[in-house]
């Protein structure tokens, strides 16, 4: 039963959604809409699961004094403070939750992402080599795109932004599309395997 | 000289970090402005499409990003929302990312105050809902089913501007400002391809190459790629020295510095190869 019930649920839900896409009329429209709403409710539940998991991981880390455990209280305090403020005062603009979000979370998040610029520069210096013709082609394209992406490129030569747009619209699109079509076919194949019970790894090892 | 170039290949990374920091700090502190020129870019297509929409159109702006990508996407959000307000369109904010709802609220409320736009009459923030692409599909049959109330818990029925809006078919344009998944691709696949709603978007520079595929097939009406896209939009809207235009100067200098390092790295590499080292 551990195997049959999940497989039956997957098959029924998957078939309803496929039929709803191709036949958007009753009863498939009704069933599809309800399944979509159920999905959103289940996905919301995952947020609670994530919060519980975060607490579990960090409390365990503190108990066992694992590496860098000193950061765990900061995480937990941050979580609890934001949770309490959000529950008591709400999340509307101007409330304490929003104040902390805009003045602490937002600048810290932006700072973390900004650090990438330093690592990109260092990595490019050490690894971006014109070691063969393919690498040289990549390097030349990167230079054109980097210059075309900033106004100084147009000041150097007004055709550089056009070259950037051409690179992005033609060779890049060809490559991207090949990858995307391949990935999409993989998604379709895997989804069908799951719906028909061939692919069962998502069941977590049940057999 | 050859020995110098061989040695410079082992340059301490802290020197690189310092030069990048200076490349960013100096243009900011000296208020250096490099004029932004808008060419035949997808950002112009996006501006033209929004500009040509009939007055009073219902436009969803989906804030699908979080604070980490805020430096690129928040100026974009502000420029787009400003343009929509100036053209008297009705702006409906949503978010596929939890933190996007708060960032969208700030963009919309700040501009609404300065342009005399009224919440629930000219704009509303419906907030965040889980589900990503599935949420968009559900909006295709009923937006109210997904958002029975707005972000501040005001019921759908009490919001005058939402009267007459039932599903995505009542929306004239969706603009997704996206930092990844779920984001623009979900809107294109579900709202665009399935329900025929025009989709525009803005994204980080790093994700722009993937989205160019949707421009060629007309699945998107335009795209703002990275801070340059935001600067283009600011320029087209007529915002003088907006945050994105100002950001173009440090970005220009930083790009030049990175290119300089790549060139030095390659000179060192070839110098070593010539000298017999790997």
Summarize the largest interface: chains and residue counts.
Answer: A-B, 60 and 68 residues
Q: Could you estimate the helical fraction of the residues of chain B in percent?
A: 40-55%
Number of DSSP strand runs of chain A: 0
Unreliable runs of chain A, pLDDT <50, ≥5 residues? none
Radius of gyration of chain A: 25 Å
Q: What is the H/E string of chain A?
A: HHHHHHHHH
Largest sheet of chain B: 6 strands, parallel
Distance between the termini of chain A: 10 Å
Q: Distance between the terminal alpha carbons of chain B, to the nearest Å?
A: 19 Å
Strand content of chain B: 5-15%
Average pLDDT, all residues of chain B: 93
β-strand percent of chain A reads under 5%
Largest sheet of chain A: none
Q: Choose one word for the global shape of chain A.
A: extended
Q: Return the structural class of chain B.
A: alpha/beta
As residue ranges, the low-confidence spans of chain B are: none
Count helical runs of chain A. Answer: 9
Radius of gyration of chain B from CA coordinates: 22 Å
- Number of strand elements of chain B: 6
What percent of the residues of chain A sit in helical stretches (DSSP H or I)?
A: over 70%
Task: Supply database-style keywords.
heterodimer, A: 207 residues, mainly alpha, 2 domains, extended, B: alpha/beta, Rossmann fold, six-stranded parallel β-sheet, 12% strand, elongated
